[in-house]
Amino acid sequence: MSTPGGVVRRSLLDDLATSMLSLIADRKLSVGDQFESVRSLAERFKVAVPTVREALRRLEATGAVELRHGSGVYVGPNVGRLVLANPLALAPSADRLVELLQARALIEPPVAALAAATRDEAALEQMEQDLATAAELIASGDHARLAEVNMDFHRSLAQASGNATLAEVVESVTVVNVREQLEILHIHGDRQADLDEHRAIYDAIRSGDSDLAELLTREHLDGVLAVINQRLQHP
């Protein structure tokens, strides 16, 4: 039985992209480092230049490489990531948004407990900065920016766990449909209470109290979920 040409081409592009990532890893290239030229890659892997460009565009879509016109190919910020949000995800229904919050309520509390046990100092400092920025934005009334900073806080919390894969998971579920999640935070409404809950979570993590950090994070996300469910049922 013959294999459809489109399937063969997709497999070739996937294999080529994977080989390029392996080459980046073997050379121990870091984010921002220049990679080989398109022509050099075509010669190395014995494929046509357009095929290399197509494979590179796939990698660029994930943030693994950056194609700079007139300059070349560079290592992108997501080159080492295992977990990525779908950049082409459609706007979700209300039910899917609730599912997204339910997923976060299951994932993030144990991550907070691990953060309290690990306490990555750089991430703790970023959490503290996120809290300070949030307080300033509440005072100034910049609620759109406030919602973004609140999301940043949750990502910084995951970074404090010291587990890069968990941090990627949390970042992915907070980046997915970010506009809709920001709308959730606007619907939730009580910005000062939200900040106070974030501060309490930070204090528990900073003090190394894993049980309290997990409990407070669970209560915080369950509280948001309860408000959203109520608003959706009684708009």
Please, could you describe this protein's structure?
- The protein is mainly alpha-helical.
- 72% of the residues lie in helices and 3% in strands.
- It has 10 helices and 2 strands.
- It has helices at residues 5-26, 38-45, 49-62, 94-118, 121-140, 143-159, 164-175, 178-188, 191-207, 210-233, and strands at residues 65-68, 72-75.
- The protein has a two-stranded antiparallel ribbon with strand order 1-2.
- A hairpin with a 3-residue loop joins strand 1 and strand 2.
Secondary-structure topology with pairs:
Blueprint: H1 5-26, H2 38-45, H3 49-62, E1 65-68, E2 72-75, H4 94-118, H5 121-140, H6 143-159, H7 164-175, H8 178-188, H9 191-207, H10 210-233
Helix pairs in contact: 1-3, 2-3, 4-6, 4-7, 4-9, 4-10, 5-6, 5-9, 6-7, 6-8, 8-10, 9-10
Short description:
This protein has helices spanning 5-26, 38-45, 49-62, 94-118, 121-140, 143-159, 164-175, 178-188, 191-207, 210-233, and strands spanning 65-68, 72-75.
